Predict the structure of C4-type zinc ribbon domain-containing protein.
Amino acid sequence: MESTVAQKLDAIYNLQQIDSKLDAIVKVRGALPEEVQDLEDEIAGYETRLDKFQKEIESYEEDIKNLKESIKDSEKLIKKYQDQQMNVRNNREYDAITKELELQDLEIQVAKKKIAEAGVKIDQKKLDLDDLKAVMDDRQKDLDLKKNELSTIVAESEAEEAKLKADREKAIKKVEDRLYKSYEKIRANARNGLAVVMVKRGACGGCFNTVPPQRQADIREKKKLIVCEHCGRILAGVEDEIVEEKPKKKRTAKA
Ligand SMILES: [Zn+2]
C-alpha cells in the first residue's frame, strides 16, 4: 500500500519527536556520569598524593632511625678512643686519637642536625596530609551527592525511556525504508539531532534560515517531500499560529 506524502511526513515527523525526547533523556544523563567520573578521577589523584606523602613521612622516619644508629656507633667509637687515649705511648698517638674523637663528635652533631631537619619535614608533611584529607572529604561528599542525583535521574527516566523506545519501534514501522535511511543520515550530521523540522515564523526550524513564501506554500500542500535548501532537513509542515514556546529546560549550574 503506497502512502501519501502527507502520511509519510506525519510518520517521519512522529519519529523525529520520539527521537528528540530520547535525545533529551540521554543529554540530561550524559553530563552527570561525566561529572561523577571527573570526581572519581580527582579523588583517585588525591589518594595517590596521600600515599606519596605517607611514603615520604616513612622515609624521613627511616632516615631518623638510621641517624640515631650512627650516633650510637659514634658514641661507641668515642668510648673506645677515650679508653685508648688512656694508654697512649706518645703525644703523636694522643693527638691522632684526639682528631678521631673530634671527628666523631662532629658526626654526631651533623646527625643531630639532620634528625631535627627531618622532624620539621615530617611535621610539615603531616600538615599537608591533613589539608589533603580535608579536601578529599569534601570531594567525597560532592561525589556522593552526584551519584545520588544520577541514580535518581536514571530511575526517573528509565520508565520513560523504555516507553519511548517501544513507541519508536512502532513509529519506525510506519516509515518507509528509504526515507528512514535518509532520516538517519541527516540526523547523524545534524548537531541538534533534528532531521525533520517544521517551518516556524517563516524560517526552517533546524537552521533558522528563511523559507521563501512560495516554498512554504508548497510545503503546506504536502504533495512532495521538500527539504531545506540551506541545511537539507526535511520540512514536515508550516506552523501558523504564534504559540509562545516554553523555554527549553536548561540544567541549572550549581555553585
Ligand atoms: Zn534548514
Summary: The two ends are 57 Å apart (CA to CA). The chain is about 75% helix and 5% strand. The mean pLDDT is 92. Residues 203 and 210 are 4 Å apart (CA to CA).
